[in-house]
Amino acid sequence: MTFFDSSTWDGRISSGGWVRGGGGSADVVEPATGNTIGSYGVGSTEDVSRAVEQGRAAQREWMALPYPERSAVFRRAGQLVDDNADVLSDWLVREAGSGRGKAAFEASLVSGEYFGATAVVEAPYGQLLRTHVPRLSMARRLPVGVVGVISPFNFPAILASRSVAPALAAGNAVVLKPDPRTAVSGGLFFAEVLREAGLPEGLFHVLPGGADLGSALVEHPDVRVISFTGSTAAGRKVGEAAGRLLKRAHLELGGNNALIVLDDVDVPAAVSAGAWGSFLHQGQICMTTGRHLVHESIYDEYVERLTATAAGIPVGNPATTEAPLGPVIDAGQRDRIHDLVTRSGEAGARITTGGTFDGLFYRPTVIADSGMSHPAFAEEVFGPVAPVAKFSTVEEAVALATQSDYGLALGILTRDVMRALDLAERIPSGIVHINDQTVDDEPTAPFGGVGASGTGSRFGGVEANIEAFTETQWVTMQGEIARYPF
Ligand code: NAD
How would DSSP label each residue in 323-366? Predict the structure, then answer.
């Protein structure tokens, strides 16, 4: 196994043509220390063309391989990820600033994507249809050809793999453009995994780089489906370009997720769930709990307990300490978080803890008495910030929850689960957890958002994955040529 150890890696990539870096070199920077821990080749627009061309050619042979050979590749890939989970975790800690727990959780999710891809290979791939003439009529699912995957920095390994694995399994070639800040854990690692697992040459390409390279991938005429995970602003641009070019774009975008805490809860348990939802991975998760909506009868106790919990969470270098929270990804992100928090304070919200930072280490922050006039409540923060608002009736809670344009995840905490189910119908959201906070993911669940959180397309589970990465072809077949009046 040639996986790069993050403590000794010299920046070389052994996977040859699997990784394209004709656009110069970039450093891998450890956010916790600012140290350079490696370097990699940046993809160029010529690399995009070469990768897509090779992918197109290799895809036809891949699709024609007997299915047991194809599914064996994903079984081996899942096993390789499991066998090397500590290597992947280490990269997630050092390159992405993940706490050890988050990194281990992410690594375990990733192997599930590759094991789960075997089911995509082996699943039925069409339907027999009723027809009014004596013939066979069927709808079959065919690969689209080349799929472009563009992924973000925050859960780099899972957010790349949840598209890469099923898109390949559905018979496609894949060109992956990871975020340049997480090129190893979001891309290069998987070139190694899939090469070692026996995926044929030419089918998978990793091109680390920025927005320009992503845009070149979207614009390439032979990339028929784009799977984009990232911000709503960038997703709009990708969606516009894809619309103009008449190609499908799956857009998984931002969130500003509400956690509704009703009056009948066990408050310490609710606070623990809420703190996890807001602070895990420094709040850099699309499903982060961005708005705590709490019933007035328990509001003061909730704020007090959440403040104490936040104040007690250690923040530090996850590679050298046991701290569950690490650094945010870079100074730009930290400054954006601090600006939203500071302006919320200036606009009258009450910062009960946090609101300070040391380098890239931002203290878990609670902002009480929040509302739409406070930017940290109204916008996606993507930082360890928990804005809390008070409501007195369920109607008010629904009104507060639906003030956001986003619709990714919703949590409802109550002993009355039927009341929660009713609430879930009234608040547009792609994901709802009753008696849990907003952050969760499983390879078997169809994941996706509505409104400003995306186009409602889904990844996860065989059905959604086949839908996302294939085209339908209607085929009829009869023994003799049909007869017509002229
Ligand atoms: P971003 O949109 O800036 O970048 C995401 C990826 O898109 C990167 O690889 C980037 O290089 C690329 N990119 C940026 N502009 C592009 C363009 N015009 N054309 C093509 N590619 C482009 O996102 P970010 O701020 O780094 O990541 C955080 C955002 O991602 C948050 O808004 C978060 O909510 C969202 N996110 C969503 C999900 C989800 O599943 N819904 C998951 C994780 C993160």
Answer: -SB---S-HHHHHHHHHHHHHHHHTT-EEEE---EETTEEPPEE
